[in-house]
Amino acid sequence: RGNLLCPGHVGSHLGFAEVDAKGRWKGFDIGLCKALTTAIFGTDEKLEIVPLSWAQRFPALQSEQVDVIIKLTGWTMSRDTKVGLQFSRPYLLGTTQMMVPKSLKIKSGLELDGASICTVGGSTNERFVATYFNANKLKHELITFEKYEEMNAAYFSGRCDVFVAWGPSLAVARAGSKNPDDHMILPDILAMEPESAAMRQGDEAWVDLVNWMFSALLTAELEGVTRANVDAMKADPPTVVVSRLLGVTPGIGERLGLRETWAYDMIKAHGNYGEIFDREIGKNSPYGLSRGLNALFKDGGALYPLVLD
Fold it and tell me: How far is CA 22 from CA 19, 25, 289, in A?
């Protein structure tokens, strides 16, 4: 066909799939779709974004309206066995966390005895809150809301001490508040869901390619290869792994049916995993989400590249 079909969102899912003032798609998931497109074609100009709602994503994949779902999709057993999907390795660990006003002067959820907590009613967050606070013998008052917008307004008006939601959602809410610097996301993790790319069953070579694209981005970060220094690294690779990653030592392309320089081209255009994260949702974005579990293992996180041999 000559292009890659990747999902966007109906409207904007801030931080992950949103449209900027010039009408261009951006966000963490979009950034990974661009990286994948560059790995395949050498340029992200061959990427076509298909706006999809959450409910539309799986039917769209099955009907070949998109080639892959990189759209905050949790890897669950039912999706893996009943829906006819197969998943990549997780590219993001989605954590449920707590945001509090800095005026409370606390650094941990363990200091929240007696706190009032806002969250969405009827969601798994209610169970996560109960489990965390009961396990740590902390008294609390749970205040639930039907709509996210109501909960958001309640927290920022001071009706509750704690805002419990998915970590990236908290970062987006904080960024959109009147005084973002007055609030902090605590490091405590109430729950975690692995987010993976989803593909149709039966195309193992495609799954391999997507897995190694994610791993190449993580390998680059681990080895210190960035957009700024990738040319110098390619000219004089400091390690065997970097030599393989950037196509100086042949093999990385032939095994996947791609150019030997596919990872080099991708890193040159978009940077390593950390650069994409920081640019789209992390410290260099309006949202300022900390890496947390999504940092590399050497930095206290849980992410790691596969072995590039």
Answer: 8, 9, 24
pLDDT tops 80 at residue 24 = yes
276 pLDDT exceeds 80? yes
CA–CA gap between residue 32 and residue 194 (Å, rounded): 16
The mean per-residue pLDDT over the stretch 69-96 comes to 94
How far apart CA 146 and CA 173 sit, in angstroms, is 17
d(CA 262, CA 265): 5
Q: Is the pLDDT of residue 88 over 90?
A: yes
Q: How many CA atoms lie within 13 A of 127 on its CB side?
A: 4
3-state DSSP percent of the chain in helix, strand and coil, to 5? 40, 20, 40
Hey, which bits of 153-230 come out as E strands? 162-166, 183-185, 191-200
- The pLDDT of residue 146 is 85
Give the CA radius of gyration of the chain: 21
